[in-house]
Amino acid sequence: MNKIHAAITAVNGYVPDYIMTNKEMETLVDTSDEWITSRTGIRERRILKGEGLGTSDMAVHAVNGLLKKRGIDAMEIDLIIFCTTTPDFTFPATANVLADKIGARNAWGYDLQAACSGFIFGLSTGAQFIESGKHKKVLVVGGDKMSSIINYKDRTTCIIFGDGCGCALLEPNEEGFGIQDSILRSDGSGKEFLGMKAGGSVLPATHETIDANLHAVHQEGPTVFKFAVTNMADVAAEIMERNNLTANDVAWLVPHQANKRIIDATASRMGVDSDKVMINIERYGNTTNGTIPLCLWEWESKMKKGDNIIIAAFGGGFTWGSIYLKWAYNS
Ligand code: UT7
């Protein structure tokens, strides 16, 4: 029997309707469209509006669309891995909430927290269940309602983030397509530079933590930028080297969308031309766990069976990594 690879067999995405432009940002904080565009590449981002709506509500749209595309029923899903930094609740897991909302009554699931690297950590862990033969259909969801943890008075963070959600279905493939390799890394000393200080067991919510805005993203931008540029580029180059891939062999780079300058640096380190790089940061900003599946969704029609794809991410805490996969279908 041939080796079983975990292949992505369908992708989908969802972004909320409300568009927050850089012009609107100018009304909230001391910034300018020119500054945001030139420093980050972001022109607008989506915001999930509506009382009582959370990350799972975006996922419902994305996943129902995926199931329809693939022509399968939610009851066929074995496992849901929900990669998110903004779960609906501390508990129960958003994977559980989603399973209930979409009627995936045969699935078990869990949330995976690795900040902006979550989706690649999720793909990689989901792949283990496919490769081992344990499961046939693993749904990996990546999404965040970042607007729920942003301080819209902090111009250094609020301009970057947006809301959105994407998903991918993993299924067994015996023809050699699917995930070939992954390199996943983390360094907890990075927690000082990008994270959320309160709301966990160390500093539960109090009036004081709320008054001090400790339930919002804290980021020391320039430090994170330096780590992100180096680590994301290095890990993408490393996975190419160890799989004997040259820039010509790579059909697409799918980078986490945190800052256009970080994306450009990664592509340049890999020697990959800009027309092979998926970039939608100008429209969605940084949707954290959503960036990579949203790119796959938007570029789905352009990817061809057998394309070599490199995915790379860097995130808070710190986490980073890269995946090399062979695209498994023509859409
Ligand atoms: O997705 C997870 C990983 N996250 C990342 O990868 C993000 C990495 N970091 C970044 O993308 C960038 O550091 C930022 C976009 C957050 C900031 O860009 P920067 O080029 O590093 O700017 P900076 O923080 O060094 O600030 C430069 C100047 C400062 O003014 P002075 O001190 O030079 O007078 C800031 O106060 O720009 C000022 N500034 C702003 N000005 C207008 C900072 N934010 C803004 C703003 N509008 N929104």
TrEMBL record:
Keyword terms: Acyltransferase, Cytoplasm, Fatty acid biosynthesis, Fatty acid metabolism, Lipid biosynthesis, Lipid metabolism, Multifunctional enzyme, Transferase
The keyword Lipid metabolism is assigned to this record: yes
Annotated stretches, region: ACP-binding: 257-261
Gene3D superfamilies reported for this sequence: 3.40.47.10
Signal sequence extent: none
Pfam families the record matches: ACP_syn_III, ACP_syn_III_C
Enzyme class: transferase
Coiled-coil zones: none
A GO CC annotation given for this chain: cytoplasm
Localization: Cytoplasm
Gene Ontology biological process: fatty acid biosynthetic process; secondary metabolite biosynthetic process
Pathway(s) per entry: Lipid metabolism; fatty acid biosynthesis
Boundaries of every Beta-ketoacyl-[acyl-carrier-protein] synthase III C-terminal domain copy: 240-327
Catalytic residue list: 116, 256, 286
GO molecular function, one term: beta-ketoacyl-acyl-carrier-protein synthase III activity
Span of domain Beta-ketoacyl-[acyl-carrier-protein] synthase III N-terminal: 110-188
Domain of life: Bacteria
Reported function: Catalyzes the condensation reaction of fatty acid synthesis by the addition to an acyl acceptor of two carbons from malonyl-ACP. Catalyzes the first condensation reaction which initiates fatty acid synthesis and may therefore play a role in governing the total rate of fatty acid production. Possesses both acetoacetyl-ACP synthase and acetyl transacylase activities. Its substrate specificity determines the biosynthesis of branched-chain and/or straight-chain of fatty acids.
Domain comment, as recorded: The last Arg residue of the ACP-binding site is essential for the weak association between ACP/AcpP and FabH.
Homology family: Belongs to the thiolase-like superfamily. FabH family.
Protein name per Swiss-Prot or TrEMBL: Beta-ketoacyl-[acyl-carrier-protein] synthase III
Origin species: Pedobacter cryotolerans
